[in-house]
Amino acid sequence: MGLDDKAEAKGDKLKGKVDELIGKATDDESRVVKGKAEQVEGSIKDTVADAKAHLKDTADTSHDDRRDDAL
């Protein structure tokens, strides 16, 4: 989950940046827009990966707290 999601998000951001730069260099507005959209998609995936990690940490902490109370 965590590292794979973060790596995929980073890849999307990088691919988007490259597409954007190529679009600007070749005066291809559709490629610029596509690149920016890929970067946004990567940012969203990054945020979702962070949220998943936070929820997992919270769940693990909650589970550990309940275990401590049982002792």
Describe what you observe in this structure:
The chain has two helices and no strands. By secondary structure, the chain is mostly helical. The mean pLDDT is 89.
Quick one: overall form? rod-shaped
- Cα-atom Rg, whole angstroms? 19 Å
In percent, how helical is the residue content? over 70%
Number of helical segments with 4 or more residues: 2
SSE inventory with pairings:
Layout: H1 2-25, H2 29-70
Structure keywords:
71 residues; mainly alpha
In short:
The protein is mostly helical and 71 residues long.
